[in-house]
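Here is an idea for our session: we take a single protein and study its fold together. To get us started, please write out a protein record for me. Start from the sequence, derive the C-alpha cells from it, and show both lines together. Go ahead whenever you are ready, and we will take it from there:
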Amino acid sequence: MIRNELTSKNGHLIIGGVDSVDLAKKYGTPLYVFDIEMIRSQIRKFKAAFEENDLNYQISYASKAFAVKAIYQVMKQENAHIDVVSGGELFTALEAGFPSDKISFHGNNKSYAELEMAVKNHIGVIILDNFHEIELLSDVLQSNNASVNVMLRLTPGISAHTHKYDQTGQTDSKFGFDVESGQASQAAKAVLNNKQMNLLGIHAHIGSQIFGTEGFIMLAKKMMEIAKQLKEEFNYWPQVINLGGGFGISYNQDDDPISASEFISKIAAELKKSDENVPEIWIEPGRSIVGASGYTLYTIGSRKDVPQHLPYVSVDGGMGDNIRPALYQAKYEAVVANKMDEKDVETAHIAGKYCESGDILIDKQALPKTKPGDILAILDTGAYGYSMAMNYNRNPRPAVVFVENGQSKLVVKRETYQDLISLDCDY
C-alpha cells in the first residue's frame, strides 16, 4: 500500500476503523493486524473479473501466505476454495470448520500420513506432484477402499520474472511433472489407468510476486495446448485448468502490480482463442488476497547514530516475525503510527532486536523525529509474516488481531515464555 493511501485521525494511523495506537496499547507489540474488509474486497474483485469475462472459475486461497483458523473462517464466509501444503495447514482448516470438499492439497513430498488424512477427510482434490506420490496415494486409496479427485501439477517450461527462489514453472524445478520430457504424459496415463483416482484437471504455477501479464498469457496458451495433447493421446479433456497464483502486490512505490480485472481479462482472451471448450479456470491467489491487508506494529526502542552513516532505529521485533527482508531482500515501507501528521526529517535503518547483523527490516526509511515508545507500523505484511514466524533467540511469536467495521478481535494469542518451553524435556 502506498503511504499516501493510508487513513489517519488526530495524527494516528487508522486500520479498519480502529486507532492503531490503541491496538498497540491493548494487545502489545509486536502485533500483526489485518484489515478484514480489504481481504473480502480483494476476493470479490477476482470473482467479479471472472464473471465479467464469462468464465467458470474458482478462487482458491493459497493459505501458505497466512494460515490460522480465523482466516479459513473468513474464506468460508466468502465462499472461496483454499489450498493447503501440509498436514498442519489441513488440520487447521478442518478445525476451523472449513468445508473439506473445497480444499486442494499441494506439496512436493506429501507423506503417507498426510495423504491418508486428506483421503479420510474427503478433501476436494489432491494435486499430485511426482511419480512417488502417485504410488503412495494409490496405496492409501487401496488401504482405505476410497477414491479421490486429483490434478497433475505440471512444469510447463515458463519462468516468471521474479526472485530466483520464487520461480517454480521452469523445467528445472523441484515441483511438478515436466512437460517437455514427457513426464506429464506418463503421469496422466498412470492416473487415468487408476480407477480410484479421478483426474479432475491440470495445474501449473509459474512463480510469485509477478507484475506483468505476459507470463500468465503464455501459461494459459500452454495449458490449453497440453489439454489438446491429452485429448489426442488419451481422449481426455480436463474439467479444470488451474493457473496457480503469483500475482504481485505493491510493497513500495516502485512496485506496479496488475489489477485483478486486467489479469483475468487478458487470460480470458487467450483461453477463448481455442476452438475447444474452455474448462473451469482456477487461480490460487495468496499474497494478493492478504498481503496488503496486513500491518505489523512495533514499539521503537534504542537508537544508534554513527557519524557519516545512517542511524539505526531499533524495534521490538525483527526477523523472527518477518524473515522476508533477510531471506529475499524484500523491501517494505513504514510509518510512525502515532506521528502521521509530522513531516519526515531523516532517513534511517529500521533494525530488529535479533542477534544477527542482517536483521534489518527496512534498509532506508524516511521518518519524522522519533523517540523510544513511538509505534512503528510496517505496511503490507499480511503475507508470509506470521506464517514464516519463528522463535529464534527464544522470542515468543506476536499476537494476531483482525479489525473490521471499527472493531478489533484477537484471533491468535501472543506466545508466552512458558509456551516456548512447553515441548522441552528435562535431561
In short: Residues 3-35+291-420 form a domain with the Lyase, Ornithine Decarboxylase; Chain A, domain 1 fold (CATH 2.40.37.10). Residues 162-169 have pLDDT under 50 and may be disordered. DSSP finds twelve helices and 21 strands in the chain.
